[in-house]
Amino acid sequence: MIRRIASSLLLAVAVLAGCQSVPPTNVHQPMTARPAPRPELASNNGAIFNPGVSRSLFDDRRARFVGDTLTISIVENTSASTSSSSSANRTSSLSASVPTITGLPGKNFQGMAASAETENDFAGKGAAAAKNVFTGAITVTVIEVLENGNLLVSGEKQVAIGHGQEYIRLSGVVNPTFISATNTIESSRVADARVEYKESGYISEAQVMGWLARFFLSVMPF
Do 139 and 72 meet the contact criterion of CB atoms below 8 Å apart? Predict the structure, then answer.
């Protein structure tokens, strides 16, 4: 019985080690869509010319229907910095003396004096800076045409390098008037843009802290 349990555990560990988990995403779903049928066009009647899939020579080639593709040039360059400083100073003093006592006990304390001084200083400074640069290009698919004519696009690009895999994902809302004649648009003109660059593999997994280490890190007071 113990051997069966051990064999099952080893098999489960081997399966989990061989599988690469796909990193989660926050882009709009689905990431692709098939072209929707266009009922205004006639179906194939057996001829060589099929109006259901053809386009006129003078037709606009820019994306406008569900299933059309659009190339987005990713040019993201953001930088932010902040700094702050504060200071506080407090000084206080206290002095006391015992006057001459006549006709009262406690003459031993006559002429004694006491003084106390205290000073508190505080100074603090803080600074933070961040800079992100992301350039590239990705072709996305129109997954929905909104009522005002804007296009909801989403797409993913997977690149396998060695034993790891890179995922480039992008989604957002595109105004068709911003699309150039070459069917491209810059990422700065995409509304509600969600751009992701993630990796999977043992190299990226080695950079993630284990759940047990995170648990002890959260409960240890030092």
Answer: yes
In DSSP terms, 71 is beta-bridged to 139, 184
Q: Indicate whether 169 belongs to any domain.
A: yes
Query: What is the rounded distance in angstroms from the CA atom of residue 13 to the CA atom of residue 68?
Result: 43
Residue-wise pLDDT tens digits, 117-163: 777 787 888 888 888 888 889 999 999 999 999 999 999 998 888 77
Measured CA to CA in angstroms, residue 148 lies from 36, 37, 123, 174, 178 at distances of 18, 20, 56, 11, 14
Residue span of the structural domain in which 139 resides: 60-80+133-222
- Residue 146 has φ and ψ, to the nearest 5°, of -75, 170
Task: Give the span between the Cα atoms of 185 and 182, in whole angstroms.
Answer: 9
Residue 51 lies inside a defined structural domain of this protein = no
